[in-house]
Amino acid sequence: MTKQAADAARVERILVPVPLGERAYDILIGRHQLCEAAGVIAELAPGARAAIVTDDNLAELHAPALESCLHQAGIATTRLTIRPGEASKSYACFVELCDGLLAAKIERNDLVIALGGGVVGDLSGFAASVLRRGVRFVQIPTSLLAQVDSSVGGKTGINSGHGKNLIGAFHQPALVICDTALLDTLSEREFKAGYAEVVKYGLIDDAAFFDWCEANWRRVIAGGPERDHAVATACRAKAAIVVRDEREDGDRALLNLGHTFAHALERLTAYNSRRLVHGEAVAIGLALAFRFSQRLGLCPGQDAGRVAAHLTSVGLPSRLQDVPGGTGSAAEIVEAMTQDKKVKRGALTFILAHGIGKSFIAPGVPADEVRRFIESELAGA
Amino acid sequence: MTKQAADAARVERILVPVPLGERAYDILIGRHQLCEAAGVIAELAPGARAAIVTDDNLAELHAPALESCLHQAGIATTRLTIRPGEASKSYACFVELCDGLLAAKIERNDLVIALGGGVVGDLSGFAASVLRRGVRFVQIPTSLLAQVDSSVGGKTGINSGHGKNLIGAFHQPALVICDTALLDTLSEREFKAGYAEVVKYGLIDDAAFFDWCEANWRRVIAGGPERDHAVATACRAKAAIVVRDEREDGDRALLNLGHTFAHALERLTAYNSRRLVHGEAVAIGLALAFRFSQRLGLCPGQDAGRVAAHLTSVGLPSRLQDVPGGTGSAAEIVEAMTQDKKVKRGALTFILAHGIGKSFIAPGVPADEVRRFIESELAGA
């Protein structure tokens, strides 16, 4: 790269700081940042070795470019691959990855680099958090969902037979690189699913960003500067909440807007990605959270209508009826909700909204109220 | 207990604070504190449920008393038992314990109570650190070794085929209860092995405490107020180092005095407790660290002699020749040392001493120098 081109790349890179004291880090966002990242990583950990954790699909797609740039920056690498898909967030894969990192002689000053989507990030972040009681890790998310959600904030973990993400750690990354050009290789379905989490930040507390999404979503998908802006806005919003409440003792729960519904739907469709992927479940959950708020007399019907209409324009589902194969009865959906990690002593906690950009935490919502709402939804009311 | 007796118990309880900011906690030391602890736990986590993790031996010995006191204090309990011994610090036992805690419906505001020695504390502390991304845990150490070393400072973990304690977390307890009366049930061998770690604190940076140990060790074993004083002094010393360097980036390495030798000896005796237990390996390691310091011209021979003489008086081993079945050659011992977690980029780091109470971190000690020293030790020089 010429100096001029390098300068241009630098200008186009957006830096979002996550000021978490001794755990502070930066999120770098822009097109073609993968190779740029190598230099930043080398500065972060001079002389370190890096274990790149990725999945079988991405290993061929992006890993060689990253490795070549890291080698040029003087960082020796080892590559560890996992099978793609949620099933890799298991105890067995965790043990295998830990032993793989030990066999690769990753020491306390070395790095684990997660190159992949949420599964790769969650699993390898957790392994990094416990390897020799904690080594640094770098997130290079390759899906939109991971860029705007799971790679930022330090939540890592695996699933148990008792539920999702029940075993894990809060382990902040040392650096997050969001190369938005990597998203060009995503399927339309996968990109749109990630987009649901982008819209979520507008709905939580940024009505102006929701307006912007309504006007610019096509350009976000197309991959122009609007995509970088959307990713940066999402990361900035998430970072602000994480800084206020790193360990989810309070405000961070706002990020669960739409998620109590979404997790229940994912459970009822047996985490079968042919029927429903996480972002699609979130899209339905967002629409439901606003309609539920409307039904409770908290939110204007106009706002709930705008939310559903925007998701529909984008091509995302927004109703229980949109789930292929159906969801089960209202009672089954409520039962699936009460298995959620966010349940405290049996009470249901929801994120509700007084309108677009005005969401809030509502603990102790009666299960009966939820069931009646879902019944009316299923009846198509 | 009458009010008078309760007051007396309170007076005899020694409180050692561990001021680690938002992770601060107290160590409570004294005879018959097990039941007293229940009230403190109830204050710490009102309304919480507690999972008591213990081993098959201790389950009958101490668990019923603890459970009965916790129930009186309004804390519901579940008991989970593991098999005694180092083999329980495995991935398999970790997975089983995590799933056991989930099955017991331990939530984020609940507690894990480790009632046992180092194995119980290390395993259950690690499980607590990752359960729902971290729940609080309380250490109730039942061995002298655990009371003065492993229960304080937040190091938790399990072993991998690649080495000991390679997978784990820094997860500080919320409370440590050292009931020194529990130590009455230890075998003489186990008590003395723990005593090696007590003496260590005098050798690190407290010459006056080493003098006190020489004068009072019989009363420490007998179980009078001297035992409480010894445990409290050790805990206070460990807490001070942990507060200076929680994650072992510097000073905390001083706690490894004698341990580079000790870990090698444990490895070479295949962690066979019939041949050598950890504290006995540490006793030999302490004597070797001082004789090695003497050989390097760093430490007066008189001090090295006093260390070995004290260990011998107590009935602890202090020479390589004291290991039943032998240790292997000098080359094998050095090889076993280089497999240690404390090796940074191949250089051997030792804790050496300028004299009793004057230890320091010596990075980059040449392996050849170590080998020649061990050869002379094996030759009985």
From TrEMBL, chains A, B:
Name of the protein: 3-dehydroquinate synthase
Cofactor names: NAD(+); Co(2+); Zn(2+)
Taxonomic classification: Bacteria, Pseudomonadati, Pseudomonadota, Alphaproteobacteria, Hyphomicrobiales
Domain 3-dehydroquinate synthase N-terminal: 80-192
Annotated EC: 4.2.3.4
Protein family per UniProt: Belongs to the sugar phosphate cyclases superfamily. Dehydroquinate synthase family.
InterPro entries: Dehydroquinate_synthase, DHQ_synth_AroB, DHQ_synth_fam, DHQS/DOIS_N, DHQS_C
Binding locations of NAD(+): 118-122, 142-143, 155, 164
Annotated function: Catalyzes the conversion of 3-deoxy-D-arabino-heptulosonate 7-phosphate (DAHP) to dehydroquinate (DHQ).
Record field: catalytic activity: 7-phospho-2-dehydro-3-deoxy-D-arabino-heptonate = 3-dehydroquinate + phosphate
SUPFAM superfamilies, per database record: Dehydroquinate synthase-like
